[in-house]
Amino acid sequence: MIFLKKLKFMITKFLYELICRTSRSYSRIRKSYDSPADTINSFFAKCLFLIVHEYLPHFKKPRTFSEKLFNRMLYSRDKIWAYVSDKFLVRQYVKQLVGEEILVPLLWVGSRPQDIPFNSLPQKFIIKMNHGCKYNIFIDKKNDLNYKDVINKLISWSKENYCLDHNAGLEWAYKNIKPKILIEEYLEEEDGKPPKDYKFFCFSGRVEFILITYDRFGYHREKHFTRDFSPLDLWNGTDQYPGPYSCPKNLGEMINIAETLSNDFDFMRVDLYNLKGKIYFGELTCYPAGGLAPFIPRKWDFIFGEKWELNKRHK
User: Fold this and answer.
1) 1-11 b/e with 16+ CB inside 10 Å = b?
2) Longest dimension (CA), the chain
3) Per-residue model confidence as pLDDT tens digits over 158-177
4) 80-85+190-307: CATH, from 2.40.30, 3.30.470, 1.20.120, 1.10.10
5) What gap in Å lies between CA 27 and CA 32, rounded to an integer?
6) Domain spans of the chain, in order of start
7) Of 59, 96, 189, 239, which has the maximum CB count within 10 A?
8) What is the pLDDT of residues 8-49, one digit of tens each?
């Protein structure tokens, strides 16, 4: 029995990686990739979806949250997705709507890693790039930093096109973002850990669900809640946080900010930090997990999907 489970896992992983590689390769050679997905793109996406979610998807007439994410990734080519996904440009969007006081202070912005003024930076800071996901370097002790290694890593990231070089090549929002380097202040709790990450699932400008990420850069665990902070029995690809939790005193203010920032979209995930009662903006996420985080039990995929009323504004 254990052997069969291992065999199934190996075969599934092989097929997943094969489809991702093939899909990326096709996306690179497709001349009209800035137009909605064609039949071949949709076929690869359907195969990938079936492997991950284990049910046959309907992309043209989606019902579930995951299907609707794929519908957006495959068929919507509105430039707004690139704008809000650019971690530098989105700051202007946030500033216009809710004010710059919730933005994490910037220490430096530039395009060339070689120009980073390491000597004038504090002991702790965060380096991130604007054109994809997981392009982050957390510096908590500058004196121990190997500047050459950091520069080489940033040069490597700068050469990547996150859309075409990662996953299945479906996250179009990142395709045309010009790479930039951002250096931000280091946010930390009193125990030195990063602040909890509050992810607000907003549908038509209303927060319906909240996902809290605990210890993002250590033992990463999550917990889902309703908007009134009732816990949900939901697994979404990451271990459940089993410890105690409490509702932030300023949750209402966080919800107001999330709803203001998401008001123009049929769906948007708004990520915020809450550090000692002060709210900071994290990011706007139009493709959570690239649509590849299964809902267990599956009913929640349908429940989240029912909240999402697709509109035709972003085509």
Assistant:
1) eeeeeeeeeee
2) 59
3) 999 999 999 999 999 999 99
4) 3.30.470
5) 9
6) 2-61, 80-85+190-307, 105-185
7) 59
8) 778 889 999 999 999 999 999 987 889 999 999 999 999 999
